[in-house]
Amino acid sequence: MARKPLPLKMLQTLEAVVRLDGVSNAAKELGVTHGAVSRQIAMLEDWLGRALFERDRGRLRPLDETHQFVAVVTDCFERMDAAMGRVKTARRRLKVFAHASFAMYWLVPRLEQFYARHPDVDVHVQTRQTGENPASSFFDVAIMRGAEQIGNWEAAPILQERLTLLTTRDRAPTLAARGVTALLGETLAVSDTRPGEIERWLEMAGLPPLQKWRERRFGHFHTAIMAVLNGQGVTVGPIELTGGKVVAEGLIAAPFPQIVAPGPRHVAYIDPQSESYPIAKRFVLWLRDEAGAF
Fold first, then answer.
1. Pairing of strands 92-99, 59-62
2. Among 17, 18, 77, 123, which is 20 to 30 Å from 35 by CA?
3. What are the helix (H) ranges across 89-239?
4. CA distance 39 to 60
5. Whole-model pTM?
6. Crossing angle for the helix pair 8-20 and 64-88, nearest 10 degrees?
């Protein structure tokens, strides 16, 4: 059998009138007019099919049964408030929007460290592709790269990329021993979403321009990384990707870490008007600590 919806707004008004001994005091606490309170009381009496007050020259005097009824209502409100407090302080979900490569190779390998410091927060990472409009999704924290921005949200710089040559950990010692000039026979895995980065690094390393190299093109950087991991060449990307769990598993390494070119900046955006702002702020501060940003 379906449960009849309770008139919670009417009950809240009744509780305030009885507790505060008057319509005027209740209206002030509830932030409504005297007339609005009177209408809520009249509607509740109509809903119950009986009077709850004696009317004495415009003043409402609660009946004995009304005092008893309101005691039960007050107890229920207090129990609901306590229950909501317990739910609110339970593990909270934080939705984080980030580029796929940043999420896969930098953020996710470090999340266990965040959980160790903030066990009450559950981070849900949603990846995005370059060019995808973040406004099409709901999130609490958006980590953007380069010149991307989000309205009037609070911005916090997280990471300034340093670009270097990336290869597998197995091949890195050999490439380092042979020297940077021996790279000329390599295939470069080029990402369409990070234009100009390989060219900048080649210039920094004193090597011929990209047109002189054998290359394989990929739509996204994380796909180019997968090609490198499967022996299909080398690429240029953030040296920061060689940290965290990927190094421990022997995946990505930088054979020439001393040769770096400037890369884009990552910025975290959070909405200062959002209910999730306090948790999002904690997450952003942790990101800055991990990245060593100031």
1. unpaired
2. 77
3. 100-102, 111-117, 172-178, 197-205, 221-229
4. 13
5. 0.63
6. 120
Strand-pair partners of 121: 92
* pLDDT one-digit tens code per residue, 222-274: 899 999 999 999 999 998 876 544 443 558 899 999 999 999 999 999 998 88
Cβ-based burial of 58 (10 A; exposed 0-12, middle 13-18, buried ≥19): exposed
Which residues are 144's β-sheet partners?
A: 267
Helix (H, G, I), strand (E, B) or coil at 249: coil
Of 230, 221, 216, 162, give the one whose Cα is nearest residue 194.
221
CA dist 53 and 48 (Å) reads 13
Tokens of 127: 């990846």
11 half-sphere exposure, CB direction, 13 A CA radius: 14
Determine if residue 22 is left, alpha or beta; phi over 0 gives left, psi from -120 to 50 gives alpha, anything else beta. left
Task: Extract the tokens encoding 267.
Answer: 């910025």
Question: CA 161, CA 260: separation in Å to the nearest integer?
Answer: 10
**Cα–Cα dist 280/158, whole Å:** 14
Please list the alpha-helical segments (H only) found in the chain. 8-20, 23-30, 34-48, 64-88, 100-102, 111-117, 172-178, 197-205, 221-229, 245-248, 277-291
Q: How many residues does the chain have?
A: 294
What amino acid occupies position 74? T
Rounded to an integer, what is the distance from CA 192 to the centroid of its chain? 26
Element (DSSP H or E) covering residue 238: strand 235-238
CA dihedral (206, 207, 210, 211) in degrees, to 10, reads: 120
User: Strand pairing of 141-145 and 261-270?
Assistant: antiparallel
What's the rounded Cα separation, in Å, for the pair 119 and 114?
8
127-136: per-residue pLDDT in tens? Answer: 876 555 555 5
Q: Write out the two tokens for 251.
A: 């995946």
